[in-house]
Design brief:
The chain has 15 helices and 26 strands. It is α+β, with helices and mostly antiparallel strands. A hairpin with a 5-residue loop joins strand 23 and strand 24. The protein binds adenosine-5'-diphosphate.
Length: about 575
């Protein structure tokens, strides 16, 4: 986060302190100005101005800070530092790098008044210009490239708002982020370092209707509830239902170039796990560390509540910066409930009129402002880039009727409902197929039809119908038992069981099953459908259900997921299903 030192305005005086909320008098400030509070200079942001009273949310622990101490206004909004070095970094909610913080203090969470730039201002990067002297450039244009990590080339952009001009100097060489890499005839010097106010979306030409899926390699998602590149999804689920595993799977496997992971105030030790786990993860596609294309923002709940409020904005601004380079970015926020709770706490300190369950009335507006920054964009430099946002929600007690889940549902277009019962039965991923939905399904069908198979939507519909029918039949079975059902319905239940076990279940920890390409996702469905068709033919020819279900080939359906040579395996299995059933009549 930038420390704006110029243009310092008149100081104010603290009048009162209530946790993260401080009121000052005599401060000449505007909304959202960053201020330094108290003798220790704690970072805060102006969130309300009424007459002579300025209310500030402070991003650090305020105990010991008292009335009479000074407040210094920077006159600048809360910004993030953008430039090479964002990837492979771990930040707190106001973009202070955790490793720098740790080296400056004894423990990651204790000291105060420590500030650090979001990117290393001294480190040199090997800059390669992509423009020549005499070229004309405009705001947003790419003027050069540096290898940010083994995985990602960082495009150096003319900052938004620049007048542009003709390139007067552009040379390859080693530069730090504050040195000019390109000079324009206007005298403007372009550096690799940009600053951007977190609460304001970076400019783009337009948002387009997304038509490509963010392929996740997770069968239930790609097959039944796909998210688009540039789409929004919510994963609500109680503790232990698989939110973290699902988010990790998406971070690892989704076909995004860049991952921004915002760990927002889960219990302290859980976040520590993320901080420890993420750097260990490999990027399965390249073998490089996953962090080489990841920026991680980690706010534990023992960090001050206001820093939690800001962490999602810091994350999405970083995402927009890579979008501007033409990358597909996936942002995971885990969990948006903790973010909303931070809002609630600050709102109650401000003594605002509470809305539902004590959340502020603007909860839904804030959520939608955040999710609105997702999308498939035409950038101002003419490239296309996307930001997909996947927010975990942790409803207390798993009750989806609470305000954060309900407000999120009104905004996002995919709902992946995690289910504690499924998790308890070890059905993973425990995404409830009856409750979940994706509003991108039809809009993404053409892509799947062009890139995977013409039959994509047809066979999916068959699977959905079969699972729906199973849900209805299960209600009857609960009352009268399975044997009371007519034979064709018993057979439907058997087919649905294979849909659940062979298709919907997927083991994140199995080296092969962990990722399922769309063609394989489709292949598994064709095998189950084959069993269905052959089984119903056999039933029609008078073969009793127990004999049909007892064939040797049927349980082999459940092992397709773990096969590397799945195409051969499926072909052979289909032949065996047919011959073993046909031989019965
Ligand atoms: P949450 O974040 O919702 O509290 P986790 O993501 O930590 O839950 O999941 C809890 C446990 O469930 C994991 O430790 C793992 O054993 C199991 N699990 C969740 N998803 C999967 C999956 N896709 N495949 C295998 N096991 C899973």
């Amino acid at each position: 986060m930038s420390q704006a030192t110029q243009d310092v305005r008149e100081d104010g005086i603290i009048e009162s302190v209530s946790g993260p909320v401080v009121q000052a008098v005599d401060l000449d400030a505007r909304m959202n100005d960053v201020v330094y509070v108290g003798d220790e200079g704690l970072m805060g942001e102006v969130i309300e101005i009424e007459g002579d009273i300025t209310t500030i949310q402070v991003y650090e622990e305020t105990s010991g800070v008292g009335p009479g101490e000074p407040v210094e206004n920077t006159g600048e909004p809360l910004t993030v530092d953008l430039g090479p070095g964002l990837l492979d970094s771990i930040y707190d909610g106001v973009q202070r790098p955790l490793d720098v913080l740790e080296s400056k203090m004894n423990s990651a969470f204790l000291d105060r008044g420590v500030d650090a730039p979001g990117i290393d201002l001294e480190k040199e990067w090997a800059f390669e210009p992509t423009v020549e002297v005499g070229d004309e450039v405009e705001s947003g244009d790419v003027v050069g490239v540096v290898e940010e990590t083994v995985s990602i080339d960082h495009k150096v952009l003319v900052p938004p708002g620049s007048e542009g001009g003709v390139v007067e100097a552009a040379e390859a060489g080693d530069f730090n982020v504050e040195e000019a890499v390109v000079t324009l005839d206007s005298g403007e010097e372009i550096t690799m370092h940009q600053e951007w106010p977190v609460r304001q979306a970076r400019p783009s030409v337009e948002k387009q209707t997304p038509t490509e899926p963010l392929v996740s390699g997770q069968r239930i998602l790609d097959g039944l509830f796909p998210i688009a590149k540039g789409g929004t999804a919510a994963i609500p689920g109680p503790f232990g239902s698989g939110k973290t595993v699902t988010q990790h799977q998406l971070a690892k496997w989704a076909d995004a170039d860049i991952v921004v992971y915002v760990g927002c105030g889960e219990r302290g030790n859980e976040m520590t796990e993320v901080i420890e786990d993420f750097p260990e993860l490999d990027d399965p596609k390249t073998g490089n560390p996953l962090m080489a294309r990841t920026s991680l923002i980690a706010n534990t709940s023992n960090m001050p509540v206001a820093a939690r409020e800001s962490c999602v904005y810091t994350g999405i601004t970083i995402a927009e910066f890579y979008r501007d380079m033409g990358y597909d970015v996936a942002l995971m926020a885990d969990s948006t409930s903790r973010w909303a709770e931070a809002m609630r706490e600050i709102s109650s300190r401000l003594e605002e009129m509470p809305g539902e369950e004590g959340y502020p009335a603007y909860l839904s507006a804030r959520l939608s402002q955040f999710y609105e920054r997702a999308g498939y964009f035409e950038n101002i430099n003419g490239t296309e880039g996307s930001i997909s946002v996947i927010g975990a929600v942790s409803p207390p007690g798993g009750d989806f009727s609470e305000p954060v889940t309900q407000n999120t549902l009104r905004i996002v277009k995919c709902f992946w409902a995690l289910d504690a019962d499924l998790a308890e039965r070890r059905h993973f991923p425990s995404i409830n197929w009856n409750e979940s939905y994706s509003l991108y399904r039809e809009q993404l069908d053409p892509w799947f039809q062009d890139n995977v198979t013409d039959e994509w939507s047809e066979i999916r519909q068959w699977a959905v119908d079969t699972l729906d029918e199973e849900a209805e039949l299960q209600e009857i079975v609960q009352l009268v038992g399975k044997d009371a059902l007519p034979e064709d319905q018993q057979l439907t239940l058997e087919v649905a069981r294979y849909l659940r076990e062979a298709y919907l279940q997927q083991n994140a920890f199995h080296p092969t099953d962990t990722y399922c390409e769309p063609a394989k996702t489709y292949g598994i469905l064709t095998a189950i459908k084959k069993f269905n068709d052959e089984a119903f033919d056999a039933l029609g020819a008078g073969v009793p259900v127990p004999e049909i279900t007892a064939i040797e080939a049927a349980p082999r359906l459940n092992r397709i997921g773990v096969q590397e040579d799945w195409e051969e395996y499926i072909e052979e299995l289909k032949d065996d299903l047919a011959s073993q059933l046909r031989e019965k009549y």
